[in-house]
Amino acid sequence: MQQRQLTADEKIEMDQCLKLNAKLCWDMAYLENVSLMASLTADVEWQHEICLEIESLQLGQDKKPGR
User: What's the superkingdom here (predicted)?
Assistant: First the structure.
């Protein structure tokens, strides 16, 4: 993109990657905030569940936050 104009297919792929990255960032921020809530309420079991979801997300496994 910095060296040459992207083709139409490359633009589509770039758009898809940017959307997926934005979703990943959103999901991670959500889980980090929920983890903080679990910590503040001293709900250790809930926090462990959230940590497992964070780990799954970091490993690229498709697990929905909060479920």
Answer: Bacteria
